[in-house]
Amino acid sequence: MKKRIFRRRIFVSIILHALLFFVVYALQDMILIHLQLFGLVPLILPVAATGVAVFEGRDIGGIAGIFAGIMCDISFNAPVGVFTVLLAFTGLLVGTLADTVMTRGFLSFYITSVVVLAICVVAQMFPLVFFVGIPTQALVMVAVRQTIYSMLFVFPLFPAVRALGRRAGRILPPGKIR
Amino acid sequence: MRALITKKSIIIAAVAVLIALTTLVSLNVFDSQGPVTNAANALVRPLNLISTRVARMFEQIYGSIYRYEQLIETNERLYRELTDLQQAYWEAEDLRAENEMWRLYFDFPARRDQSHELAAITRWGGSNFYSSFVINRGYDNYWMNPIKAGDGVMTAYGVLVGRVTAVTATTATVTTVLDTSFSASVLVGDGEQPITARGDFSLMGSGYFMLDNIPEGMPILPGAYVITSGGGAFPGGLLMGEVVAVYTHATGLGRYATVRQPRPLDTIHQVFVITEFDDLL
User: Fold this and answer.
1) How far apart are alpha carbons B126 and B122 in whole angstroms?
2) pLDDT tens-place string over residues B249-280
3) Which residue of chain B comes nearest to A146, CA vs CA?
4) Scanning every residue of chain B, which has its alpha carbon at the shortest distance from the alpha carbon of A77?
5) pLDDT tens digit string along A92-113?
6) Of the candidates B40, B47, B202, which has its C-beta nearest A70's C-beta?
7) pLDDT tens-digit series, residues B119-151
8) Do B180 and A28 touch (CB under 8 A)?
């Protein structure tokens, strides 16, 4: 009986996570692409993956990173690979930090999201700087604006990822460090 | 560190690396984007089709509400242009007939037709660093010509908008003329000397691309039309845009010009892929 309840909870949890990433993907790739701010499209999937890693820990964070990465690569019309590896690793790293030394809360979610977004934008710029030879200054301007715009989505995503984390029963009382 | 490197995390990292390696091998060995990319694209395709339809519906509603006056003005202008062009067409018809007569007389080669495949744009790339879109045609096109990497892509009005860079069974990724990886040999105005048109990152956001390394003494004025020169990856005579302005490089050496497409790329919904072409034979 307990096993069945456990399985049902796992199933519901998978559905809820899939729903979150589907909504975020749809927002990034289907809605905000038509409603660009200063000609830019925000990068929200890494923020959602980071949020899951912060509130649910290393393993779920890593898995969420893989799926968010695949969606990101598809969203950029690129072959699946770069962002899949990148977000899987950042998910594992952020999740480990949340499991060990970091308090699970809005501030840590915000700071880790900024760091992950910065890593993502560097990965996007890398081939253009080293293989195409585009001046870094022009790229940095777009990179900074993209990161700032994407950071705005930490606010609406926070309640969703926190609720998922609470549901998983893994959030510790505020301030407590595991 | 001990908390990070565990059996589970190693498995997760290995799965991510394996997915990337599969794609890398597929790209380099089989010239395909790999099973994961194809599966993910197939999964999101219905969603993209729905979102494209919804976006177009909103564009139409927005257009009918806010752009009504502007559309009437555009319609009037286009009607005037059409009348002028009809007159020019009849004059050109006479010239064409004369040209054909002399071509046969001197046994000169003829320009042959191109093969096109109509495709709809299903998704625009979400990256701020690249300019690309996905079309709903691939290498498995049933009774139609298969799409290949390198094929040129143009609008219904014969304006070159990009090149196919990756193909799956049912979709193809098109890199636009605005992307930094794009370049083509072009002619400007009545000029006969080909120069290079290429995408430029700083111009990409404004929908312009660049004519670089304009030879010394070559006259280029704003308003001149830019067309493909042919003999390369694209057939000759395809319109690419109109020169907006000509500048001297900051170093003082050489000139460059900015070029605008006749219509903003993000307003295009359907394109033609040039699957086969022969320039002058």
Assistant:
1) 13
2) 888 788 899 999 988 888 888 999 998 887 65
3) B128
4) B125
5) 999 999 988 888 899 999 999 9
6) B40
7) 999 888 888 899 999 998 888 866 678 888 899
8) no
Of B4, B19, B129, the CB nearest to A125: B129
Whether B71 and B77 have beta carbons less than 8 Å apart is answered as no
Chain A residue closest in CA terms to B21: A81
Residue type for B84, please?
Answer: D
Percent of chain A scoring above 70 in pLDDT: 94
For residue B15, give the H/E element and its range: helix B7-25
Tell me whether strands B160-167 and B152-154 are parallel, antiparallel or unpaired: antiparallel
What one-letter code names the amino acid at B262? Answer: P
Overall size of chain B counted in residues = 281
- Cβ neighbour number for residue B105 with a 10 Å cutoff: 8
Contact B128 A81 (CB under 8 A): no
Contact between chains at A80 and B166 (C-beta distance less than 8 A): no
What is the average per-residue pLDDT within A13-36? 88
- B45-62: average pLDDT: 79
Domain B113-281 superfamily per CATH: Rod shape-determining protein MreC, domain 2 (2.40.10.350)
CB pairs under 8 A between A and B: 137
Q: Which two tokens stand for residue A175?
A: 């301030």
Secondary structure (DSSP) of B125-183: ---SS--EEEES--S--TTSPPP-TT-EEE-TTSBEEEEEEEE-SS-EEEEETTSTT-E
- Do B241 and B186 meet the contact criterion of CB atoms below 8 Å apart? no
Angstrom CA distances, B70 to A55, B55, B73, stand at 51, 20, 5
Average pLDDT over residues B57-81: 81
Segments making up each domain of chain A, as ranges: 2-167
> CA B31, B36, B37, B38 torsion: positive or negative?
positive
CB contact under 8 A, A77 and B132: yes
Residues 118 to 157 of A: which have CB under 8 A from any B CB? 124-125, 128, 132, 134, 138-139, 142, 146
Nearest to A99 by CA among A143, A59, A145, A141: A59
Inter-chain CB proximity A84 and B124 less than 8 Å: no
Interface contact flag, A134 B36, Cβ < 8 Å: no
The CATH code that applies to domain A2-167 is 1.10.1760
What residues form DSSP beta bridges with B227? Answer: B187, B239
Q: How far apart are CA B261 and CA B244, in angstroms?
A: 10
**CA-CA-CA-CA torsion sign (B59, B60, B64, B69):** positive
| C-beta of residue B238 within 8 angstroms of C-beta of residue B228 | yes
